[in-house]
Every structure is written in structure tokens, then in C-alpha cells.
Model the fold of this input.
Amino acid sequence: MTDHDGAQDPDERRLSTREAADRLGVKPETVYAYVSRGQLTSRREPGGRGSTFDAKEVDALARRGGRREPSGAGSELAVRTGITLIDRDHCYFRGVDTSELAAHHSYEEVAEWLWTGEMRRGIRFTAPHDALTAARRAVDALPAHTGPMDRLQVAVIAAAAADPLRFDLSERAVLDTARTLIPTLVAALPRRAAGRPPTQAGAGEAGAGRAGDELGAGGRRADGLGAAEKPAPELGAEDGPLAPRLWSRLTSEPADPPSLRVLDAALVLLIDHDLAASTLAVRVAASARAHPYAIVSAGFGALDGALHGAASGLAHRMLLEVLDRGSAAAVVADHLRAGRRVPGLGHPLYPGEDPRARALFALLEDVPRARPALQAARDVITTTARHKEWRANVDLALAVLTVATGMPAEAGETIFAVARTAGWIAHALEEYDEPPLRMRPIGQYSGPRPPQPLP
Done:
């Protein structure tokens, strides 16, 4: 279309294939792939050579996250998100430093704020009866040797089956699901009672939750989970803060306010970390309009991979070996000799120290029983610093907490999974507002050229 003097209206200017590709940051053939998927429309002008594209439509696709940035190994999908920014050895949630959030707010408060933009002091998440009953029955039916990640995956499926409204993807319904699913996952895990294997808490099991009665109650924070540091009736009461509830599922050792502060801070710091593998899996599922339980299930599936959620367990076992042998040098040497990277060190997104580790190490200083494990971690860092510029990451800090408090090696992965559930819900809410099925990378076929003979 032209204006009155015969010049083309700049707002309705058509782009060539090359111009559209440049705006999207992709190759020209990728532009045609967008056309084939219905994300762009093309038009051939009479007498023209090649297709043309509407500039507004191309710019809108770029804003929606359709842009694929070029890299040395091909193209990578870039997703616009307003949740997490990692910049210069700092991590921010919606522009706020995560270390500051962890120092002043509980996990539930930060999760609620991340979802809604509202900071609700003292908010508590409670598991609904039907979902919790279904989840516990399903978890109880598993073999005794079943690990916590298997239990969490079964619990989320059982909770979904108990919720006939799970397919309602309105924001209000998703938020209601999020607030109940996280405590359901925690409460479905068996308690760890002193002197016997983990057991599912039930009516009349008065002693099962006494693995640490000291719990601060009242307002949050400055000094931890509560202003007062008086014993609570029962550690992990199902209507209390989430951190004590989770504690009783991770260890039979008594809890103290400084240790609970570390656990709660870890939950906050691990809520999200940009587009990690599990988060990308979540956004793909949300793009297909999967319900929130299926979203979390997708995240658990990716997290269960050996290269994602298991890292803190490796660091845990390394610290135990350092404490047993009395030398970090010998343990580090064994890892390097076997061609293994030293667990708990280095992170591709941080040239220096992982800020989450820095925050947790500072809190662990106030936990007397953590001193041996903390010193073992420092010995590992010092030993490797002579030859490698590897700094501590959050897995090493988690390992100090789990070793110091008698938690099993897989406890760090459990903390990670519970914490990250809130971040996955936040990403799902973002993705539900995007065009459906946009998470569709382009396959680069590398098989035999057709036609091939019938096998």
C-alpha cells in the first residue's frame, strides 16, 4: 500500500526473505520453516522475485521469542522471560538479587511473589486432603529402596489423578494448584525417625516428627524462619513453614534455627536459574498446554538426569571421603586421575563464585555442626585453586548442609526438586501467555537422501 505521494507506508513495508531473516537472527531457510508452521505469512508480489513478509508480523514473532540466535554449533532457541537474570556473578529474580531475597523472605513468600508480584508475609502452603491421601498411598506402595526422586515423580502423578480440575489453565486455577502441589510433594515423602528407617507419618505417630523440635515461630525474618526461637509442638507440622516440613523428610537429626535458615535459603536460591534443562522441558510442555502437574512431571524427568539433579550427591560423597581420609588433596587427585571433574566446583554461567554458594556458605558459618564439612569444602577449593580457576558452586554448599546434618546423599537433589517446582510454575505461567506450540525447533535431517529402496 502507498500513501498519497506514492511512497510506501513504512508501517506496512514488506521485507525480503533476507531482511526478515536478519530481524529474526536466523538463516533464510528458517524463515520458510516459520511459514510452514503458520508463524509467518509470505506473499509474492506480481513480477517480484522471492517472497515478502510483513514487517510488523516479523517483529511480533521476534518479540514472542521466535528468534533463534546464531552460534558456532548451529542455532539455539532463545526464549524471552522476565523471571531470572544471571549477570556478572549475580542472580536476580525479577530484578531483585536472590541473595537478598533469601536473607529476608521465606520460600513460600518468594514463590508467591514470583508468581503474582505480591509479597505476602507469612504465607503458608497447605496440602489438600484428597491430593495428599492419593500421593501418600501411591508413595507407600513403592519398594522400600525407592529413592526420593522416584517418590516425588509418583506423588505428582497421583496428585494429578486426584484433581479433576487440573485441565483448567486459567491463572487463578494454576496458582491454586501450585500452592497445594508443593506441600503435597513434601508431605508425601516419608519422615525420617531416629533409630529406624524412613516411615510415613500417620495418625498416632507422635515420635516420628520429633527429629528436631527447635523451630522459630512468628514473623519472618532477619534472624531466620521466625522472630522467636522457641520449640514448636512438632517439627514439620503440616500447617507450618515448608522448610521444617521438608527437614523432617530429609534427616532424623534435630533441627536448630541456624540450620533451618540454611535450608530455607537454599529453597529460595534454587527456585529458578534461567533456562536450565528441566526448565526448558517445562516450557515445552507448557507450550503444548499441558496442565501444571504434567509441567512439574516434565521438570522432574529432566532433573532426574545424571548431569542435572545428581550433582549435589556427588559433592556430598566427596566431602564424606575428605572427612574420612583427612585430606582433600588425595581425594581431588583421585578425581583428576580418573578423568573426572571435581564435584561442586565451577559453573558455566559464572566466571567467579556461584552467588548461591556464596550466600549459603555465609549462613553455614552460623551452624556449629557444619564446621567440619565446611572446612572440608574449603580444603577442596584451596587444593584445586593451585591449578584450576574453579570456584564453588551451589552443589558444594548444598553438600556441606547435607553432610553436616546427617542427610543422605540424595537429599540435595530433593531440596533442588522441591525448590525448583515454584520456578517451573512461574515459567509455565509465562508460556501459557505465549502462542501455543511455539517451542518447535527445526530438525536438521542428516539421514540418507530419498528415495531409498523399501527395506
